[in-house]
Design a protein that fits this description.
Elements lengths: L6 E3 L6 E3 L12 H12 L17 H6 L3
């Protein structure tokens, strides 16, 4: 069995880090990169691709698609 460490790239700055307990912010290299990523999601600069039809929880499409 290999003891070779698994390396991953920080999604924010692309720095390679070891996936281990030494890096508690994984997959990010630091708290700073983790917060930058959170800010990107909060400001909606990053999104999960998909249809915008049912984004509004009060939309007619969503209400009509639910079986009670």
């Amino acid at each position: 069995m290999s003891n070779k460490a698994t390396l991953v790239q920080c999604p924010t700055c692309q720095t390679k880090i070891e996936w281990s307990e030494k890096h508690p912010n994984r997959p990010f290299c630091s708290e700073r990169c983790k917060l930058i990523d959170l800010g990107e999601w909060a400001s909606e600069n990053r999104r999960i691709p998909g249809s915008n039809e049912m984004n509004d929880v009060f939309s007619e499409e969503l209400i009509n698609s639910v079986d009670y």
